[in-house]
Amino acid sequence: MPDMYISVPYDTDGENGLRGDPVNSKPVAGSIPRGGHPAYDIPDTNEGYEKAKTELKNPYEVSEENLENGKAMYTIYCISCHGAKGDGNGYLSEAEKFVGIPNYKDRDITDGSIYHVLMHGKNLMGSHSSQLTYKERWQIVQYVEVLRTDLLK
Question: Does the model's pTM come out above 0.85?
């Protein structure tokens, strides 16, 4: 039993695991990604934005519950810049901390483009992917569409 006295050193932070495979190179069979939804694989590029804009659709039906939570999340994360009406006149805009915040009325946006911007950010807006769950992001998308419709009237 020599290994009991002289252990074989394994570098736990090493590049290769016990069987010689790279560490974390394959997901565990049957595992579910964090959040229970597939990873967002549309790249943060202009082409990725256009792809999301045309191909990405909201998987949730518009409902009172989704709109209510979308409004709550919008109030927490979006209202300070985009304003309560989505007109770009939030507190930070009025205080001249940020200029040029877009008005939803003036934008050619879709469910997919809104979701893409929540995931990756755009211009001065940073990503909100770590603050919001998959469902919450789509609920905000629904609420932004309601605001946009109201602005177009």
Answer: no
